[in-house]
Amino acid sequence: MAQISVTDEEVREWGPKLEQIVDWFDQLQAVDVEGVPPATRADLTEENLLRPDMPRTFDNREDMMAEVPDREGPFVKVPKIS
């Protein structure tokens, strides 16, 4: 286990929450998934996993730009990510 420092108050506050999380994982472990193929997302199937890229023209550019909170000329300004 990681050696972390917690106060008695933090133990009282977070202990029950962590126990709930562990219990939830125990429930997940108990689910019978025999015969269920592994997947990263339930809504993906072989038919929609990879679709061909289809270029298309977006006709409502001005409507979209009218909703943009910050722009510089024709460009959308977004916060800098450092």
UniProtKB/TrEMBL annotation:
An individual GO BP term? glutaminyl-tRNAGln biosynthesis via transamidation
Q: InterPro entries under this entry?
A: Asp/Glu-ADT_sf_sub_c, GatC
Please name the Pfam families in this protein's record: GatC (PF02686)
Coiled coil, from the record: none
A GO cellular component entry from the record: chloroplast
Per its UniProt entry, which superkingdom is the organism in?
Eukaryota
Quote the Gene3D superfamilies the UniProt record gives: Glu-tRNAGln amidotransferase C subunit, N-terminal domain
NCBIfam families assigned:
gatC
Q: What is this protein's name?
A: Glu-AdT subunit C
Per the UniProt record, the source organism is: Elliptochloris bilobata
